[in-house]
Design brief:
Blueprint: H1 2-27
Length: 28
């Protein structure tokens, strides 16, 4: 259970990084 939550947290962080990266590309 704990590992699942940990993986989910990492996945969310990666998704946020991708989102911000795509925002920068659109802004540029």
């Amino acid at each position: 259970m704990y590992t699942g939550l940990g993986l989910h947290a990492v996945d969310m962080e990666a998704a946020e990084r991708l989102w911000k990266l795509s925002e920068q590309m659109v802004a540029a």
